Structure formats: structure tokens, C-alpha cells
């Protein structure tokens, strides 16, 4: 493995790293501090014939209680940001909230929507994250990824296959290591005002005091998932320690040591109730992985 020794653990609980504070044990968990360490970890896993799971801030993910086999890699130490003119080039592990703050400090506009989004740059690109009228595909210019053959490849915007909560990296096995954001000159005060407005609206509507994954379901065409859930009388409904938020029906919050299985079971319960009431199929925005 890498000569520079990344943080590396065996039989490591995932819950402490996850926004939901839920999830089983990973066979191995590593946190590389460089691209070299990341490449070495992937080569080691390949030699050992282990499956590999790569995450940022684990903010849009439900890990079942049985945990994850193989190697889990967290990109959180790869977080450098560089500026080239009106561009910010950020490593995949950089918090998207922090990148938005850097943009404000440098008087660059285009990332105000990301000021309160939990998660990493890599996760935001992978899921084409968005909020308050903004979305990753509006500002991402190019992405560099480590491909399954361990080669580095740069994808221009037209090759990223961006769609609603989708990017090419959900299909090609590439691990996002860096993204370039094409921003525009702005005024620090106006940028901060927009960020503050978004965060105020978020605090009013969302249950930020409890661990959660944010919005659980994609927006079904012609409907709002939260309203369908609310109109189905499901707010306050719980499975184990996980509950449909009474503040925002689109959120599920961990109120009492909930597990990954609790999250998954509550998701299925909500899907069934909403379909029975409105014949609308809710599709999870969060990914559900791992062993039961």
C-alpha cells in the first residue's frame, strides 16, 4: 500500500462519518490524503479482489445495518481549492458549502445555491446536486476522474451527461477527484445576501437540528414529494429511530439511534402509502446500499 500511509481501519463503523449517523460496519475504511494514496488504495483493493466504495461526506446515502463489504474510501482529506481567473478548481473532498464561501470571498457569483448544502464537491457533481434555483450543471465546466484502469481522464461539460440528479459517473465507474467551476465576477455583499437568504429559508423549512440526508425523494413530475407525503398524513410516522419530519415531510430524521435498515424500511413505507393514495411512484434521491 501507499508509502505515505493513509488513515486505514479494519471493521470500522460507518455511522460516525455519515450525515444520518446510521450505517453498519465497513470491512475496511481508508481516508487518503493524496491522489497517490488513492491510487495505491485502489490498486491494493484490486489485488485483494475487494469491492470498492468511494464517498465524500456520506450526505445522500443510506448504508444498511449489515454494512459494506470490501474497502470504503472517504475523500474528505482531498479538499484543496485553486483559483484561475473566474474559475475555482476544487478537489472532490472539499465541502461544497466551503467552496461557496470561497467563491463569496473572491467575489465570484454562481455558487450561492450551494451555501447550505451538506456534502462534498465530488458528491455534488456525482448527483448533480441543486437547490434554490441553482444546480451543479450550471457552473461545472470540467471534471477529472480516476477511471477503473487507474488512468486520469478529464471530462468536458458536454461529456458529463448531466440530468436531474444524474451524471456520467453513475454509469462509468470513474472516481471524481477534481472539478472546475466556471463562475462570474460579482459583488461580495450581494453574494452574501443571497447566501443568507437561502440559508434563512432553509432553516425555516428544514429540520436542521436532527441528522438526516436532506430531501429523500426526487421530485415526481407534476407533484412535490413533500406535499404528497404530508397529504398522506405521514408526518411523524416512524420506523425504529427514524421519523418522517414534522417540519418538512420530504425529510427523514434520525431521532433515536436509528439504523440504516430503519431508514430503508421507512422509505418503503412512505412509497407504498403515497402510491396507494395518489398512484404516484416516489423514487428515492438518496442511494441505498450495503447488506441488510
Briefly summarize what is shown:
By secondary structure, the chain is an alpha+beta fold. 27% of the residues lie in helices and 28% in strands.
**Would you tell me which CATH topology of the largest domain applies?**
Uridine Diphospho-n-acetylenolpyruvylglucosamine Reductase, domain 3
The computed structural class is: alpha+beta
Could you report the average pLDDT, rounded to the nearest whole number? Answer: 95
Please give the domain count: 3
CATH class type of the largest domain: Alpha Beta
Counted beta strands: 19
User: What letter string, H or E per element, gives the SSE order?
Assistant: EEHEEEEEHEHEEEEHEEHEHEEEHE
Indicate the radius of gyration in whole angstroms.
19 Å
Enumerate the spans where pLDDT stays under 50 for 5 or more consecutive residues: none
Total of helices: 7
- The percentage helix is 25-40%
